[in-house]
Design brief:
The chain is mainly α. Helix 2 packs across helix 4 and helix 4 crosses helix 5.
Length: 157
């Protein structure tokens, strides 16, 4: 009986170490996003800035479309994904000097904010809504890494 208990304790220890490692990884990623960059603001500060600056620019139609696009994200991470994508959409809208976020800006920002593996879902969802993807092909052709490094110059091409 004590051998079984010993094995259960060992398994429990490995399980706890594994779970703490996973949790620590996500906490460390969040910590890195909070570190200030060259301009003195962190990635999360900029995300918050763009969301707050553009929160009055959203129409219900665009909010509903954004909700549909982030629906496949697991509920645990959906708020974070929505916030990150909305901040990039807001950044695009401000770069274009728009007064209101329209469908075109929403789709461009979504493409820029998401990794290439999510673009297949976006194409499928846009086809369901009878939205032509041809105007957005230049964004689909670039990967997220291209946007991360210097996306503003790639966007203006």
């Amino acid at each position: 009986m004590s051998v079984i208990v010993d094995y259960l304790i060992i398994i429990w220890c490995f399980l706890m170490i594994g779970l703490m490692t996973i949790g620590g990884f996500f906490m460390f990623r969040k910590f890195l996003k909070k570190l200030p960059k060259e301009d003195g603001k962190s990635t999360m500060d900029w995300e918050e800035y763009y969301v707050n600056k553009t929160k009055d620019m959203w129409n219900e139609k665009e909010k509903d479309l954004l909700e549909e696009l982030v629906a496949p994200v697991p509920e645990l991470f959906r708020d974070v994904a929505r916030h990150k994508i909305a901040s990039k959409i807001g950044e695009v809208a401000l770069m274009k000097n728009q007064q209101v976020i329209n469908q075109e800006t929403l789709i461009e920002g979504y493409i820029i904010a998401t990794p290439k593996r999510d673009h297949k879902f976006l194409r499928k969802k846009l086809a369901q809504k009878n939205i032509d993807t041809a105007p957005y092909e230049q964004f689909f052709l670039q990967s997220k890494e291209d946007y991360q490094n210097n996306w503003e110059t790639n966007y203006r091409k």
